[in-house]
Every structure is written in structure tokens, then in C-alpha cells.
């Protein structure tokens, strides 16, 4: 394990040494053809966009030299004919510029949407496959900011920024080439600021990178706070903590604002500095080029072209700061998304198929020890056997490790030592999804999705018919209250089922398990948070659905498990007693003491 951990750390450092742009290109390798096509269209669009100044120079040459102009050398001496040729070339160039602008806009935007869509799906799918411990160590809001805000940031850059960078580079190459072809004597003066501009751009990029990484971190904290508060709005209201939470949100929002302010302070200086550098080249061209044209060593047409071209170079370079700003934000987001995708899946998926219909349901824990990360073991050398088709109960004080056993059986966590078997097969060898399909869980903390009652009952058994849904609800004694809801089975339950009472949510959860019809049923404190009448109804339904099914009942109320085939008592991660209800009372130990407390007999 230590070797594997060290290997993971080395591979993680290696990933971080790769530039985020390279990580993005590696991810989007299936789009390479579309990327190259989009780049080609961006370059061609910019080429035709820069052509009109050349036509202006040709037109000035016709006005000044007439029969001795460049076009006249092609054999067209008539001035009107020369202007017709210029006009025709203008129409063709403008049409081609528009065609390639449409093409690159469509290609880049579709590319951005496709990568955004696939990246979000891949990140979410990978997130679902990670172990439960990963989610316990991170805030929901932070993960949401990666799946939503970071991926959207990347989409915004691909939509506009990538094209801007390509077109700026194309502009520099074309205009630089034109300068050295048309007027090599002044070209070096006009282009002399270019190396400093490029060096300054990369220098700004390096300075901005850590600032934008900090921004992404701060927005993750802010999103985490907001998601957490919205989920706990009832608690906030009941404890009149609105002002306190306002101040905490303000604190996180201000930290985000301050991080942005530090980045803005630097990025805002980029354009003014670039303008000053461009001013040097423009002034040199204006002065020395003008003197050369006046002296006759440079034609007026060439001088006109150069003046127009230097202007066309000015504005794209002043936008370079904004483009690099988008780029750095996108790269910071890319690193966060790729880090998520590169997070190794700790739980082995298993490779042995487990058809549900073949499962008998015999479960055995053999010398199992388990500890949550950076904590002392909560399960210590525990061994217990659950015969197929029987109902066993596990009781004990809070923190004794009862619910942890359920998580280990579902392989939400991996055990440290020992092993757990199902029908004699080690859980680690079984296909993980097949294993979970044969287990039905009804927990104390019922989670209902925003949707209809019917959709929540059929969750996990999505192909169920309406008749099967209703039958499951009747077995769970939920049908009657469902029919009294405004739209019956089509009633929207609200987020987390907030429109229903705790007992109603519990019965829908039982109906969900009934419809799944698993060979193993786990009841984790299923009746601890309901009233006596609801508890009686749930107990009646449980008596029916536990027949000939392996049932594991984690219980706080001992009255609900007194008829179990065997009751295990846990304390501090160990089994301290086992037997039937009557046998445990006769032992007059931990269970008997708990029973006396709950029944009021002490």
C-alpha cells in the first residue's frame, strides 16, 4: 500500500508538471481534425481581413502613377479598368473574409460546446465512481464549481479566446512579413517592439497564473458556503442565524473579490504598457517612413499600406491582455477539472458477475477491521455470520460502528483487514454494480429527488410499470396517503422530498426497496424518526417484505427488532453479545440494560 501511495504521488507530480493546455489537448484528441480546421479558418479569415489595406495602397498607386501603376504593368492601362479590377478584388476578398469568419465562428463555438459537454459528463461520471471518503473531505459547492463554473470558463475561452490568440499571431506574422518585403529599411524600426511585447505577454501570463488559481480556489469556497446554507435554510431560520450566515457569505465573497482585485491590478496594466511599446514602432514608421516617401525612396502607395497595416496591428495587440486574461482563467479551470479526472478510483470495480436471481443472501464478516481516514478504527476484528433468508438485528450505542457495517457491505468504503463474503464469494471479487443491485437500503436519512412520487418509488428500477409502482406502494402502506396528495402519484415531492413528512418519505423509501425486490434488505434505523402510528404501519409492511429475504436491521428502538432470528450487540466496534431477544434478556448484560431503559423498567 505504501508503494502504491508513493507511486500515486509521483504520477500526480508528473501530471502537474504538464502544462494545462497540453492536458486539454490530450483530452480533446478526438477533436484534432475540427481544431485544425478551425485554426485554418481563423488564419484565412485574418489573411483576407488584412488584404484591404494592400488594395488601398494599390488604389493610391493608381491615382498617383496612373498608366505606370502596378496594375498597369499587368496590361490594363485604362484608369477606370484598373479601378474595376481593384473593386472586383475587393468584393472577392470581403466575401471570402465573411465566409471564413462564419466558418471559424461555427467551428470554434461547436468545438467549445462539444468539449464542454463531454468534459462535464466525463467529470461527473468519474466523480460518481469515486469512493465516499472523497466527498466527505470536500464541499459540495467546491465540486459544483468545478462541474459548472470551471467548465463554463473553459467553454468561454474556446468560444472566443482561442480564435483571438490565433488571429493575433497571424496578424503579427503577415504584417511583419509585409513590412520586410515592402520597406526593409524601416521595417526593423516598426517591428522592434514586437519581441518586448511578446516577452511582456509571457511575463504577465506567469505572474497571473497563481493569482487565477487562487481565484478558482476562492470561488470554490464561496460556492460551498452557498450550497451548504441553501441546504440548511430551515436550520438557519429556526436558529435566527440569518445575520451570522450573511456575514460568513460576505467574508467568503470578499475573499473572492480580493483575489480578483489582485489579478485585476496586474492585468489592467497590460494594455497601457503594450500601447506604449506599439507607440514606439508607430512613431518610427510615421517619421522615417514619411521621410523616405517624401525623398522618393519609398512609393506613396507603399507608405499608405504600411500606415494602415501598423494601425491594424495596434488594436489586436491591445486586446492581447484581455485574451491572455481569458486564457489564464481557462488554464486555472482546466487544471482543476483535469485534477478531478486524474483522481484515482480507490475502490476496485470487481470482475465477477453476480446475477441477482442467483443470490441466496448469506453474508459473513471475517475478522474485519476498518478506520476512517486519519481516525482510530471504528470496527475492530469483527466476525459475524448472517444466514441466507434470516433477519438479524444489530444494536448498540451511538458511534459503536453499526452503520459503518452497512457502508462496508455496500463497498462504499474498503476494509483495511479481513474480508466480507456474499454466498462464500469475497465482495472485492464481485462486480461492484451487481453487488449493489442485490442490496436494498432503507436508511434513516431518506433522500428523495425533485420529481414525482412515482419517479421516486421507481428510482433504480426505472423500467417498472405503473401497476408495479402502485403494488410496491401498497406493500409499504404508502398508497393511501399518496392518493390523498394533490396529484396522487404525479405529485412533485420537492427537493429532498421537503413537501412530505418524515414518515411519508420513509414509506416511499420502503416502497422503492420493495420495487427493487433485492435478495438482501438493509434497514438502517428505518423507524427511528417517525411517530408511533407511522412506526406501526412501517413495521407491518416490513414484516411482509422480510419473508424469505436476508434482512439486516440496524435499530435504535429495540421493540422493532425483538422478533429477529438473531440480535448482535456492538460496543466500540466489537461484538459483545449475540442471541435472540429472550436469550439476551436472560444474559442480563448490555442488551438487557438497553431494553430496561427503553421500556421504562429500571
Automatic annotation (TrEMBL):
Provide the ABC transmembrane type-1 domain boundaries.
36-329
Q: Where in the cell is it found?
A: Cell membrane
Keywords (alphabetical) are:
ATP-binding, Membrane, Nucleotide-binding, Transmembrane, Transmembrane helix
Membrane topology note = Multi-pass membrane protein
Where's it mainly located? membrane
- Read off the Pfam families from this record: ABC_membrane (PF00664), ABC_tran (PF00005)
* Highest taxon above the source species: Bacteria
Instruction: Outline the extent of the ABC transporter domain.
Output: 363-597
SMART domains, from UniProt? AAA
One of the record's GO molecular function terms: ATP binding
Q: Which residues cross the membrane?
A: 35-60, 80-100, 165-182, 266-286, 292-310
Question: What name does the UniProt record give this protein?
Answer: ABC transporter ATP-binding protein
